[in-house]
Amino acid sequence: MFLQYTEDQGRALGLGGWVKNTRQGTVIGQIQGPVQRVNSMKLWLKNVGSPSSRIDRAVFSNERDVSKLEVQGFSTRY
């Protein structure tokens, strides 16, 4: 459920990226887009999530500027 809500939020913000469950029970992904929209998504991931999710922590790493989106649309990977 968290993945679907995350995908919907990414699309609503017009971001590029993906999200995926890990074998460790965590979620990983990639977000691309204008800084303000990426920051909005990061706040959503850190504080809101899906209605049934429990967010223990959110870690964002490997942040960099890109001149154009490398990922079109926002999707769930399996």
Using brief descriptors, characterize the structure shown.
78 residues, alpha+beta, Alpha-Beta Plaits, 2 helices, 3 strands, 19% strand, Acylphosphatase-like_dom_sf, Acylphosphatase
Describe this structure in words.
Residues 1-78 form the Acylphosphatase-like domain. By secondary structure, the chain is an alpha+beta fold. The protein has a domain at 2-54: 2-Layer Sandwich (Alpha-Beta Plaits), CATH 3.30.70.100. Helices cover 31% and strands 19% of the residues. Strands 2-1-3 form a 3-stranded mixed beta sheet, with helices on one face. The longest helix is centred in the middle third of the chain and has 13 residues, at 35-47. It is globular, with a radius of gyration of 12 Å. The two termini are 14 Å apart. The mean pLDDT is 93.
In short:
This is Acylphosphatase 2. GO terms for molecular function: acylphosphatase activity. This protein has 78 residues and is α+β, with helices and mostly antiparallel strands.
